[in-house]
């Protein structure tokens, strides 16, 4: 009897090749398209259905809009209103996308689920863990660090050992030309009009949408911002300030002030995180490489303290400025060891 796998299909190249590879490996593949955002997803839904038909696999559509509104959009807007910069994919993966995949798989007695993420599942002494995909430019392990460990043994990532160019070459032989040539969307899935317009519509009456002062490190007013939610810590472009470059270093929500500095990096940081996830037992004094944002250069940190509720790390070297709401993900080589959601930071001297 063939092993069954439920594949999340988006209508794009990666999930189509995922389905193709699993079928070639002998799986009985069932594809599912999740209607999530409330935006017009009819084109993507039709494309996913067409690809499933081309691959001769079962296919269905599931309405997950209520769950997406509750677990992603509501939390996203709340975070932006507080001046944070959340990552919607990190919110969505454990609480919507994979949650629905496992819910449906259990209903259908399907033992495995799969997606087109560029990541790998590896076996550690302590159990399964998420690891980087071999394509450094496409690696999505950062986005997946909050998946519960008990799910990992039932997840398949066929693209984790492939580079994007190889995926496209595979598609050329088996899939329609339109999907091979399809450009990757740079927009968030729930806001085809763009994130700025989406947030402006939903937050227009909030304080974080109101103009305010831009101040340098000395407290001198050097410009005016257009609403704090439009800016993220570390941002350089779009500030409209003379004598740059300038970088956003903090946001004062109470007084509606955006603070900037000429320093892109800090001597070192102490970073506070909430809701930590641990794939390994994280101990005080242990060293890891950390990523503070998707596709950024890792930097070395030491854990100062960690509990089930919070984690504090300190930089070992020069650190980038970090944005509250983003995630700090800890790695040992290519393997995800844990991480947490950044809530604050302060500049300190490097630990030795």
TrEMBL record:
Residues 290-342 form the tRNA-specific 2-thiouridylase MnmA-like C-terminal domain. It catalyses: S-sulfanyl-L-cysteinyl-[protein] + uridine(34) in tRNA + AH2 + ATP = 2-thiouridine(34) in tRNA + L-cysteinyl-[protein] + A + AMP + diphosphate + H(+). One of its GO terms (molecular function) is ATP binding. ATP binds at residues 8-15, 34, 116. The record marks 117, 326 as: Interaction with tRNA. Coiled coil: none annotated. Residues 138-140, 293-294 are annotated as: Interaction with tRNA. The active site is at residues 92, 189. One of its GO terms (biological process) is tRNA wobble position uridine thiolation. Residues 197-262 form the tRNA-specific 2-thiouridylase MnmA-like central domain. SUPFAM superfamilies: Adenine nucleotide alpha hydrolases-like. It comes from the Bacteria. It is found in: Cytoplasm. Belongs to the MnmA/TRMU family. This is tRNA-specific 2-thiouridylase MnmA.
